[in-house]
């Protein structure tokens, strides 16, 4: 009989947590038991999973007993507080926060790119930042054929990156503006409806924000190329869900758009979307709810003989967070990377 596994979702009531529930069901993850964990203020709520109402428990010292995999998506401070306790209890933690991404002892994994990195885990595997995941899936197949020398990327990031509360805020702001009222801000520092602004994460001394530095540092770690030249500009845009990115790639030799299309057409996790006659290319509205990263408008960079331009859109909550985490959990099973102990069977 096939094995099944006990899974806990930490941060189950958030936007990524509820997406994790949907994906575990849709992908028929081999579950023996599912435990939903959140902060004390969410304790007592119930969430529906495969027609059953499951209770949400407050995270505590004892809640990781007999758990095999923890899918954590409750923020860096929560992960720092509880991940080690879950590992001590025998679980493997797949963490969606920024808490462990740049820890040299913690693998940073995108299954389509570096699945072998998971083999080195010591109890925690980090899920990269959403924009890093989406870009990595799209450009890694090209990098394997001809190593990328430099990346220049501009991101157009939806409200979903700041959570469910931010998405609701944008809706209320849009309604207020249409009604002639002043939009209120709480999740964001400025109104996002009918507006855009550079990503509001903390600025570093170099003038880059933290979101931009995540793309630089995480891409280098995932690709295993510490000297990869990369620069990023991250922008919040008035889109509810799904991020977009304009990516400029520089190679040491010319890389034809047609060759890039042929490679990406069969690349895992990628869907090529190009209709040049209709001027139709990936859009956030098309990427919403999709597992694949939509890639298109692949063209020669006219300013550089070895440059290539492409445009991509991907669902930040899905592939940019929850799906990548579930894929890592599947990778743990596939590569036999869970601790050996009595596991329930079905």
TrEMBL record:
UniProt similarity note: Belongs to the aspartate-semialdehyde dehydrogenase family.
Coiled coil: none
Pathway(s) of this molecule: Amino-acid biosynthesis; L-threonine biosynthesis; L-threonine from L-aspartate: step 2/5; Amino-acid biosynthesis; L-methionine biosynthesis via de novo pathway; L-homoserine from L-aspartate: step 2/3; Amino-acid biosynthesis; L-lysine biosynthesis via DAP pathway; (S)-tetrahydrodipicolinate from L-aspartate: step 2/4
Function description: Catalyzes the NADPH-dependent formation of L-aspartate-semialdehyde (L-ASA) by the reductive dephosphorylation of L-aspartyl-4-phosphate.
Quaternary structure note: Homodimer.
Enzyme nomenclature, EC number: 1.2.1.11
Official protein name in the record: Aspartate-semialdehyde dehydrogenase
Span of the signal peptide: none
SUPFAM superfamilies: Glyceraldehyde-3-phosphate dehydrogenase-like, C-terminal domain (SSF55347), NAD(P)-binding Rossmann-fold domains (SSF51735)
Location of the Semialdehyde dehydrogenase NAD-binding domain: 6-121
Listed CDD domains: ASADH_C_bac_euk_like (cd18131), VcASADH2_like_N (cd02316)
The encoding gene: asd
Binding site for NADP(+): 13-16, 41-42, 160-161, 316
Binding positions (phosphate): 101
One GO BP: 'de novo' L-methionine biosynthetic process
InterPro entries the record matches: Asp_semialdehyde_DH (IPR012080), Asp_semialdehyde_DH_beta (IPR005986), NAD(P)-bd_dom_sf (IPR036291), Semialdehyde_DH_NAD-bd (IPR000534), Semialdhyde_DH_dimer_dom (IPR012280)
Organism: Desertifilum tharense IPPAS B-1220
């Amino acid at each position: 009989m096939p094995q099944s596994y006990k899974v806990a979702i930490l941060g189950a009531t958030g936007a990524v947590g509820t997406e994790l529930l949907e994906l575990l069901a849709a992908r028929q993850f081999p579950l023996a038991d599912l435990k939903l964990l959140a902060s004390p203020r969410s304790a007592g709520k119930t969430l529906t999973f495969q027609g059953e109402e499951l209770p949400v428990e407050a995270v505590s010292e004892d809640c990781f007993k007999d758990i095999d995999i923890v899918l954590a998506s409750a923020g860096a401070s929560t992960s720092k507080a509880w991940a080690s306790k879950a590992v001590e209890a025998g679980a493997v933690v797949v963490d969606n926060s920024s808490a462990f991404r740049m820890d040299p002892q913690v693998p940073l994994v995108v299954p389509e790119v570096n699945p072998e990195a998971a083999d080195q885990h010591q109890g925690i595997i980090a899920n990269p930042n959403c924009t890093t995941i989406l870009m990595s899936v799209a450009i890694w197949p090209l990098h394997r054929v001809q190593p990328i020398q430099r990346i220049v990327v501009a991101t157009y990031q939806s409200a979903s990156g700041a959570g469910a509360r931010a998405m609701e805020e944008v809706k209320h702001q849009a309604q207020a503006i249409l009604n002639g009222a002043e939009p209120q801000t709480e999740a964001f520092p400025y109104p996002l409806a009918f507006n855009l602004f550079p990503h509001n994460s903390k600025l570093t001394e170099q003038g880059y924000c933290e979101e931009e530095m995540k793309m630089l540092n995480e891409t280098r770690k995932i690709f295993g190329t510490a000297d990869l030249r990369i620069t990023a500009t991250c922008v919040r845009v008035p889109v509810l869900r799904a991020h977009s990115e304009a990516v400029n790639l520089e190679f040491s030799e010319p890389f034809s758009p047609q060759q890039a299309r042929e490679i990406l057409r069969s690349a895992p996790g990628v869907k090529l979307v190009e209709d040049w006659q209709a001027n139709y290319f990936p859009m956030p509205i098309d990427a919403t709810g999709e597992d694949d990263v939509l890639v298109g408008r692949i063209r020669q960079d006219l300013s550089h003989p070895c440059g290539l331009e492409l445009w991509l859109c991907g669902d930040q909550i899905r592939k940019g967070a929850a799906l990548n985490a579930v894929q890592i959990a599947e990778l743990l099973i596939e590569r036999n990377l869970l601790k050996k102990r009595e596991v329930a069977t079905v």
